[in-house]
Amino acid sequence: MSLAQIDTWMTSPAKGGDGWGEVKTCLFVCVTTSEGLVEWGEAFVLPCREKAVAEIIHALGRSAGEMQAVSPQAFRNHAVRVAAKHRSLDFAAASSALEMALWDICGKRAGKPLCTLWGGDHSRAIPVYGNIWSDTQWDAGSLERRATELVAQGYGAVKIHPMLNHSAQEAAHCVTRVRAAIGDDIHLMVDLDSQDDIATPLQVERLIGSARPYWFEEPVDGEEIQSLARVRRITGLPIVTGEKQSGLTNFRNVLAADAADILNPDIAGVGGLLDMIQLSELADRQDVKISPHCWNSMTVAAAAMLHVCAAIPNAEMAEIYPEYIAHGELFATTGFQLNGAHAYLSGKPGLGVEIDTSALESLSHHHHSTCLTIVKAAT
């Protein structure tokens, strides 16, 4: 295939559909091929750099547009050359979005769900968990109520972030309160959001043993590999890391140090779906699981996450942001359904996502288009 046009949209922040927290800005890319196929990708973005990632998408798209034929593998090789061993998370997010769209095209052209192109089963029930995240509601009572709400909605696992605005003692209190509220049959994940040293996570761990956390996420920063390994050895808890890292080098080092039980690179930030598949193969050799991070919309990126989980043998639970679901329904048909503790793919070709561009435009504060045929003509 050859590329004809690239469009990006950045949605405006919005209130969560059920009033818990905010929906952050999301960055979507639409790739149009010379044969008229229109498909979608999504990039992981953080505040103050959304437009920078969009600019990288267009620049990288223009350079890829000069290729006679673009496949996901050819694009990945091209992106690696362009990065010249200086790939940052923002560059990786841009290449993730474009590669994701190219995979969507491949699935549509084949008339098959994307996961089947990797040997997966689109009818597979994919376990999910509800992530409880808010920038405003952090007292133990709020966390307890929110966890109870998600369990009532059918989630069999929930994740909390008890260290935000809390001491170690207060965080432990939150964990034990939530465990008491949801009962013993629900998986409870504890995310410590990258503490500065290992003293705090070790203190929290000693105080929450009776709550039986399912995993211990980012007890320290993911780049502090030896500290992660030490926390894992001392606590014996399953350690999760990887959401802030891209490319394969860091993850190879984590695996070599035996520093994690579960890797959670962001589906729209790791660098591309090929990187995610390759990482799964590397991790599986050491019985390490993959639980893709997805702090993105519950539309394009979430569909990509679920297709990966349906195709790899070592998938752990996939991440769902419940408050983002209603917002995504304003402009997209998601390509999957949530049913209690599991997600089910629709079976539609490609990612299975359908976007109403007019609705997306109305929810966005920035739209940019690059016509690659004009770029080619000018050169």
Description of the structure:
The chain has about 375 residues and is α/β, with parallel strands linked by helices. The protein has 14 helices and 18 strands. It has helices at about 50-65, 70-85, 90-110, 115, 140-150, 170-180, 200-205, 225-235, 250-255, 275-285, 300-310, 320-330, 355-360, 370-379, and strands at about 5-10, 15, 20-25, 25-35, 40-45, 125-130, 155-160, 185-190, 215, 240, 260-265, 290, 320, 330-335, 335-340, 340-345, 355, 365-370. The strands form four sheets. Strands 6, 7, 8, 9, 10, 11, 12, 13, 15 and 16 form a ten-stranded mixed β-sheet that branches. A hairpin with a 4-residue loop joins strand 4 and strand 5. Helix 1 packs across helix 3 (about 90-110), helix 5 (about 140-150) runs parallel beside helix 6 and helix 6 packs parallel to helix 7 (about 200-205).
Write the layout of secondary structure elements.
Elements: E1 3-11, E2 14-15, E3 22-23, E4 27-33, E5 38-43, H1 50-65, H2 72-83, H3 89-110, H4 114-117, E6 126-131, H5 140-152, E7 157-160, H6 168-182, E8 187-191, H7 199-207, E9 215-217, H8 225-235, E10 239-241, H9 249-256, E11 262-263, H10 273-284, E12 289-290, H11 300-309, E13 318-320, H12 322-328, E14 332-333, E15 336-339, E16 342-345, E17 354-355, H13 357-362, E18 364-371, H14 372-378
